[in-house]
TrEMBL record:
UniProt cross-references to CDD domains, sorted A to Z: FruK_PfkB_like (cd01164)
UniProt-listed Enzyme Commission number(s): 2.7.1.56
Domain of life assignment: Bacteria
Protein name: 1-phosphofructokinase
Role, per record: Catalyzes the ATP-dependent phosphorylation of fructose-l-phosphate to fructose-l,6-bisphosphate.
UniProt catalytic activity: beta-D-fructose 1-phosphate + ATP = beta-D-fructose 1,6-bisphosphate + ADP + H(+)
UniProt family annotation: Belongs to the carbohydrate kinase PfkB family.
Alphabetized InterPro entries for the sequence: 1-PFruKinase, Carboh/pur_kinase_PfkB_CS, PfkB_dom, Ribokinase-like, Tagatose/fructose_Pkinase
Domain Carbohydrate kinase PfkB: 11-281
One GO cellular component term noted in the UniProt record for this chain: cytosol
GO terms assigned for molecular function: 1-phosphofructokinase activity; ATP binding
Keywords per UniProt: ATP-binding, Kinase, Nucleotide-binding, Transferase
Any Gene Ontology biological process: carbohydrate catabolic process
Length: 309
């Protein structure tokens, strides 16, 4: 079973406004509520590609109840710990540009934390765990490392979609997949990259031995898969005039790659499928649907480069 951990879920309130005026009264022409949080987005993508996944994390209050009901309607499994405080609401304001207001989220009590860790301890070695998103403020960023240490002790494969110190510390445990974007890679490397070849060279020398698989997201410029002996570059594909939704695109890449590798163990096709998932979500209101993903999969251009030892 795949488990997707969302420690700090949210309701994503997406508001669309034309001619937004700061400091004035604006009227939305469209608004939607979605169950959100990076791990939940992962589970929604997996559901769309016909793979079961159990959501783990913390939910509370009327906002948490909305997320629980939303996931049930989608037939997505969940085993959240119920907490006393309300799950957060994040606002995504879409005008000529996109603005996000992400709230802090609930504080987690010691008993709630231990209840969650007990669920982590029960995960078995033939399961897989995807960790992604922010951590409730009072748990601290090292809480992910606490989870990873339990998984590592039990022989459970995992991927962590995070950045900064948490990302760096997780490499000690050799994740199945890491997927930093270009800015996160620059932060980790403490340097700039002039072109894709510089990224490939750096990752081959410094990261490929620290994770089983490495994908670098280049946003609208495509994506890279980098191994010691070869690299894959996915050219960007614009399937519609404008990007509709940047929320969940990276989560879709992670979910798509893990899903395909666990089923087929084919790196090049898994990378193609992952990029197709991310692209489909970018041009969808919520998460990319399977038929749209398959359409994009067949149109993607992937360039392979091989390197000597």
């Amino acid at each position: 079973m795949i488990y997707s951990v969302t420690l700090n879920p949210s309701i994503d309130f997406i508001v669309r406004v034309k001619d937004f005026q700061l400091g004035g009264t604006n009227r939305a022409y469209e608004d939607n509520f979605f169950a959100g949080g990076k791990g939940i987005m992962v589970s929604k993508l997996l559901k769309n590609v016909k793979t079961d996944c159990v959501n783990l994390g913390f939910l509370g209050g009327f906002t948490g109840a909305f997320i629980e009901q939303n996931l049930k309607k989608l037939n997505i499994l969940s085993d959240f710990v119920t907490v006393n405080e309300n799950t957060r609401v994040n606002v995504k304001l879409k005008t000529e540009t996109e603005t996000e207001i992400n709230c802090q989220g609930p504080k987690i009590s010691d008993s709630e934390k231990e209840e969650f860790l007990d669920k982590i301890r029960k995960i078995e070695s033939d399961d897989f765990v995807i960790l992604s998103g922010s951590v409730p403020s009072n748990l601290g960023n090292d809480f992910y490392i606490t989870i990873i240490e339990i998984l590592n002790k039990n022989g459970v494969k995992f991927t962590l979609d995070s950045s900064g110190e948490t990302f760096s510390k997780s490499l000690k445990y050799k994740p199945f997949l890491i997927k930093p974007n270009k800015d996160e890679l620059k932060e980790y490397a403490k340097r700039e990259f002039k072109n894709n070849q510089e990224i490939v060279n750096y990752v081959r020398e410094n990261l490929v031995d620290k994770a089983e698989h490495v994908i670098i997201s280049l946003g609208g410029e495509g994506a890279l898969y980098i191994d010691k002996n070869f690299s894959l570059f996915a050219y960007p594909l614009r399937v519609k005039e404008n990007v509709v939704n940047t929320v969940g695109a990276g989560d879709s890449v992670v979910a798509g790659f893990v899903n395909y590798m666990l089923k087929h163990n084919d790196v090049e096709r898994a990378f193609r499928f992952a990029v197709a998932c991310g692209t489909a979500t970018s041009f969808s209101e919520d998460i990319g649907e399977l038929n749209f993903i398959e359409e994009i999969y067949n149109k993607l251009v992937i360039e392979r480069k091989c390197y000597g030892n």
